[in-house]
Write a structure and sequence with these properties.
The complex is a heterodimer of chains A (324) and B (324).
Chain A: H1 2-29, H2 33-37, H3 44-54, H4 60-72, H5 86-121, H6 126-140, H7 143-157, E1 170-172, E2 175-177, H8 182-214, H9 218-225, H10 230-259, H11 262-267, H12 273-282, H13 286-314
Antiparallel strand pairs in A: 1-2
Chain B: E1 6-17, E2 20-32, E3 37-41, H1 48-56, E4 64-72, E5 75-76, H2 82-88, E6 93-96, H3 100-103, H4 110-119, H5 126-139, H6 145-148, H7 158-170, E7 176-180, H8 188-204, E8 208-213, H9 216-222, E9 225-230, E10 233-239, H10 240-245, H11 250-257, E11 306-308, E12 311-313
Helix pairs in contact in B: 4-5, 5-7, 7-8
The chains are: A mainly alpha (324), B alpha/beta (324).
């Protein structure tokens, strides 16, 4: 286990380094921030002074090494636009995205697994057909369109739920979140549903396929021959086997939801990191973009690590130390 | 006269398919006496396994028992509701499957799978159930059973897994065990161990045993009586010594001449010509006639069951030695 953790840490550092190089180069390619930051009627002297103060006058490799040196010391640079440390900008907005993503994940699992089980246990029944059709819609209708429809139906026509913002924040154990006020929760519902619909469809299909693959296996029949109840067969014998592929996919999807909740956050004006990323790209705020992507990569690494641990808990055949 | 443990009369199990009805088991009748070991022999697809599953009510849909009667200790099983049937499975009739690599759930510990089998039928504490599981493992010759309860199936060899499956079958001291080719997937040396073990345990607990196999040699070593199945029907039945020394049905004779150890060294093995008929297009009359050297005009009629003392066969041209 400790071998596994050490090896994983080394890999993570390598991944972070490579990402830093790629992102730094990529951000350079998208344009010169100076044009955005300095008013057109500034004098050449002022221009030169601003460029020098941002460190943009030095060659790129020097800028990269400076960035790297600071990053290793925990400083991911300052935003050109806000003139604040990028990391605090990101951490300020991360909780909003986290609460949105986690809620969407819970919705996807809490609804997706039961529906997938129902579908898989009664394949080709009317219920199965209905659930499958629904999941095709969830897959194929674009997320932004779904979001606008949700707003139109539930906010405009029915007037039940607010359409924008995060609502009132409550505080619990020092954590500020929409979870802790009724107003916050009502603000959370629509964006969370919007973000979860695609994952929900995915979970339904994965579960259904898993059930259909597992039910005909000998060990299910043997469990029946032992006189085990059908409920225990489904919820213990079959479900535990299905969890293995489910955890893999959910892990990856959780990362991508965190990173790319942009569309949902934009539609619902949710003050999360996705919106920060889009704004920063528009303003060519290089340090924020670089720091954002590094934070996201770190989150991905962390999620993968948790997924690997979960594997070893679910599947006894997986031994973490022996991975090569 | 003592009541037989199992009395199967005119049992038919059919599988409706798009291309017609497959009569996997076709009007099969046999009995199993108390403490009797009955060998059920046939080629792949002869319906021997489906016969076993029919008794337990575990035929996979769309297949189902369409007619006939299965009486177990005087109780009719075919009409029994699911719940009552479940109370019998594993408790009074147990089953051992062919492939020990597939019969145990890979993600549940041996202990979990054994304890649940105890608790499915008996209201005892978990500790008590675990003790019984441990004792059962010890009984089938698994070393240090207490520790092995916490192990997972992948930590056992094939032979050991089959011992675990046997231990599970023995948990409730059933009156009847149906063993579906339990040694086929094992090494020859392990085969004889398992064979010996099952025979010993069956005698020790005075259980009746239906041993399904394609291997006449195994059945000769184990069974009191043998039933030979071909294309969904029993074509010959009788005490194992009599049938094997003087087979009446040409198919039985063919099976014996195809066993390497039964044919004197130097003489060629004689495979049965042709292959088993497609279950969708069985010939009328005797379904073996296309492959039978003795077949004549008369064989296109359905041969009736000839009974002579304790032997029966379904053939117009039984072997001379037995011809009545």
């Amino acid at each position: 286990m400790s071998v596994f953790i050490i090896r994983r840490l080394m890999q993570s550092i390598a991944v972070l380094f490579v990402t830093a190089v790629v992102v730094f180069l990529g951000v350079y390619a998208i344009g010169d921030p100076v044009e955005m930051l300095i008013s057109p009627d500034a004098s050449p002297a002022e221009r030169a002074q601003v460029i020098a103060s941002l460190g943009l006058d030095r060659p790129m490799w020097q800028q990269f090494l400076t960035f790297l040196w600071n990053a290793v010391h925990g400083d991911l640079g300052r935003s050109f636009v806000f003139n604040r440390p990028t990391i605090s900008l990101i951490l300020e907005r991360l909780p909003a995205t986290l609460e949105l993503t986690l809620t969407a994940l819970v919705i996807a699992l809490a609804i997706g697994i039961p529906l997938g089980l129902i579908s898989g246990l009664k394949p080709n029944s009317a219920t199965d057909e209905a659930i499958m059709t629904g999941s095709i819609l969830g897959f194929s209708l674009p997320s932004f369109w779904q979001g606008m429809m949700l707003i139109m139906i539930f906010s405009i026509w029915l007037g039940w739920l607010p359409s924008t913002g995060r609502g009132e924040l409550g505080s619990f154990l020092g954590i500020q979140s929409s979870f802790f006020t009724l107003d916050g929760l009502t603000h959370l519902i629509l964006p969370a549903i919007n973000l979860s619909l695609f994952k929900l469809s995915l979970v339904i299909r994965l579960t259904r396929t898993g059930v259909r693959e597992t039910m005909p296996l000998d060990f299910v029949k043997f469990a029946r021959a032992k006189g085990i109840s059908e409920r225990r067969i489904v919820f213990v014998h079959v479900l535990k086997n299905i969890l293995i592929p489910l955890v893999t996919v959910i892990g990856m999807e959780l990362g991508s939801m965190l990173a790319f909740a942009v569309v949902t956050e934009t539609i619902f004006a949710w003050p999360g990191i996705g919106k920060l990323l889009i704004d920063s790209i528009m303003r060519l705020d290089r340090p924020v973009v670089v720091a954002y992507l590094l934070v996201i990569v770190s989150l991905f690494i962390l999620i993968n690590f948790v997924v690997d641990i979960l594997y070893s808990l679910i599947d006894p055949r997986v031994r973490l130390g022996e991975q090569s | 006269m003592t009541q037989p443990v199992l009395e199967v009369t005119n049992l038919s199990t059919h599988f409706p398919t798009r291309r017609g009805v497959i009569k996997a088991v076709d009007e099969v009748s046999f009995t199993v006496g108390q403490r009797e070991i009955v060998g059920l022999v046939g080629e792949s697809g002869s319906g021997k396994s489906i016969t076993g599953f029919s008794v337990l009510g575990l035929v996979d849909p769309p297949g189902r028992v369409v007619s006939g009667s299965i009486r177990f200790q005087g109780e009719e099983l075919t009409q029994l509701p699911q719940k009552a049937m479940r109370a019998i499975r594993g408790k009074r009739i147990a089953m051992i499957f062919q492939d020990p690599m597939m019969t145990l759930n890979p993600v549940l510990s041996i202990g979990t799978q054994m304890v649940e089998a105890v608790l499915a039928h008996d209201r005892v504490s978990r500790t008590e159930a675990r003790n019984r599981a441990r004792d059962a493992l010890g009984m089938v010759g698994i070393p240090s059973p207490e520790e092995r309860l916490d192990a997972y199936p992948h930590q056992f060899s094939g032979g050991m897994r089959q011992r675990v499956a046997i231990a599970i079958a023995l948990l409730h001291r059933p009156d009847l065990i149906i063993a579906d080719e339990p040694t086929t997937a094992l090494d020859v040396t392990i085969q004889s161990q398992i064979l010996y073990e099952i025979k010993r345990l069956a005698q020790e607990f005075s259980m009746a045993l239906v041993w399904i196999s394609h291997d006449l040699g195994v059945v000769a070593a184990l069974a009191d009586r043998v039933l030979v199945m071909y294309a969904g029907r029993i074509v010959e039945a009788g005490p194992v010594e009599d049938v094997l020394s003087q087979p009446a049905h040409p198919y039985t004779l063919g099976l014996m001449q195809a066993i390497p150890s039964a044919v004197p060294r130097g003489e060629p093995l004689r495979p049965i010509p042709g292959m088993a008929p497609s279950p969708l297009a069985r010939p009328s009359g005797c379904s073996f006639r296309d492959r039978c050297q003795r077949a004549t005009e008369i064989c296109s009629a359905e041969p009736r069951l000839d009974i002579l003392a304790d032997r029966e066969w379904r053939c117009f041209h039984p072997n001379e030695g037995r011809a009545a």
